[in-house]
Amino acid sequence: MTTAQATPKIMHAQGEPLIVAPEREATNLVHLVHRTVERHPDREAIRWKRAKGRGEGSTEGGWESRTYRELWDWITELSLGLRDLGLGDGDAVAIMSRTRAEWPVSDLAALATGAITAPIYPQSEPNQAAFILNNVGANAIFVENAQQAAKIATIRDQVPTLEHVITMDPSGKFPDGTLTLDDVMARADDDATNRRLWREGWEAIPADRTATVIHTSGTTANPKGAMLTHANIIFNYQAVLQVIDVTEDDLFLSWLPMSHIFERVAGEFLPLGVGSTVAYAEPLIERLAQNMADVSPTIMAAVPRFYERVYGRVRSTIESGSPTKQKIFGWAMGVGAQRYDNHVAGRANSPWLKVQLKLADVLVFKKIRARTGGNIKYLVSGSAPLSREVGEFFYGMGLLILEGYGLTETSPFVSINRPHDFLFGTVGTPAPSTEVKIDEATGEICVRGPQVMQGYLNNPEETAKAIDSEGWFHTGDIGELDEIGRIRITDRLKNIIVLGNGKNVSPGPMEAAMSASKFIAQAVILGDNQPYTGALIAPDFEELEAWAAANGMAELPPEQLIERREVQKLIDGEVKRALDGFAIYERPRRTALLPRALSEEDGELTPTLKTKMRVVQSNWKDKIAYLFDEKGTSQD
Questions:
Q1: Strand order of the sheet with strand 164-167?
Q2: Residue 12: what pLDDT?
Q3: What residues have CB less than 8 Å from 186, skipping those under 6 apart?
Q4: Please, what's the largest Cα pairwise distance for the chain?
Q5: 3-class secondary-structure state, position 545
Q6: Which domains does the chain have, with CATH numbers?
Q7: Which one of 301, 365, 548, 622 is separated from 96 by 20 to 30 angstroms, measured CA to CA?
Q8: pTM over 0.90
């Protein structure tokens, strides 16, 4: 039964004890996957898209798959090949690739040699890659393709420990000496004694040994490398299974970057540890909708922007339909809202509401859910705040988004909304065996539990700042706890805006609220030391151009479209609607429209789509100057 939302009253919360069934125990991450191989050798383990009709095991639709036995054979041969190259205990292997089937295979093969793995975001600049390779002392690196191999070639002389570059995709022209996966696997030793020693080696890896070093995607040139142990990640696996129903019959669709610990757990260790199937989506986000329809996943993790875009597209489709369709949709969403209100209040749905929900499902919701493949059990959201409006919208349609909270340094699970007890606008209660407290002086969220990292590699000063003498990890996030311990995140500590009059403003909740508008792709609030706040807004140009065409402004390029007063008035209206519940001094007095979206390519976003404020302020100086120009000059 769900308790109604209440005014925050507590400063400390603790999750229930972790109870681990014998079949969920594992000594290390390689053992975690191998247990599944022994239990379910013939179950489908992984699936990925290839050209239609190509490759052993390919299906009619161009999807290839491997059973758990076949997956283990792949991991074994690659790991033995790495061992023949000289890799073993104390070594480090980097992985620089987009999410694909070869990513977890490379990861597990390297771990089975006793090495640690270090992901590098494929969008990283050469100097960033060089820093990570040197920080971990990488002996080898898996790269996705010829493009990434060429990038590594430019910094090869800066990384004295790097001996081997191995490509996942052999097509294209490569620098001399580049190995393919087949080249490495061909080196696998068939000798029974050596294979036995290899197995004894990975079986003996202790849980408290570092498994991976993940470098935080910050705004500085030299990120910090969080050292996560096998035990840290196994705890995540066990804790998730205690609070969310995941079974071997589930099918995960993996598409977020596996370089980030969120997808590393959700797309590798959790499903492969349970015995589920993982389908790895094509790398182009434009293909994601078709991939969902192809594989009909039951569980998928995504960032809030994905859900915001779906929300905006559905609204746009309905609003362009007939008045009758709009009326039916509005009625159906009202019925869905009643269902959520009952959930929050702990009331059962009345017989009449149940009838209405069934009718709404037939007329509206079922058709929308079909676009996700029709089998979704849970959607998971992380990495940034999810708008409550978006969460309620999906729930009204029968798609439950479980919003969670975590960080690289907590590998990542700190809290999550439970399927039986969720409240949109919060990130749920603490994970099992996890403590969360709010610092009384700063409002910072602090975490203590089995998931907290060992520290930052080669950086004792930053480690000491992050983890205090009592074992509390200081997250840098500001939040509060409600009366039953649900966490509500209000912002990042470093993002708090202090206005010229001394008032503090948390931009995060307002940015999330504005991004729920179908016309707004991204929003950034500024105002430090200013008399008021202002907002940089990147419109959703697909929606905006459709609106403009319907209002006599067809075929204008983005840079001209944003200068039209009608467009400014439209966006200002959306901002006003979205921020109606915020204090007057918090709301932006002016908005400045950007001619394009903020992007990773321009250095404005991290790989997990967080805003790099320093770069944004540098790239858009003229727009920011307009926001705080007391003369009030207009954009056009």
A1: 179-180, 164-167, 140-143, 92-96, 116-119, 210-215, 225-229, 455-456
A2: 94
A3: 81
A4: 81
A5: helix
A6: 22-235 (3.40.50.12780), 303-374+376-493 (3.40.50.12780), 497-627 (3.30.300.30)
A7: 301
A8: no
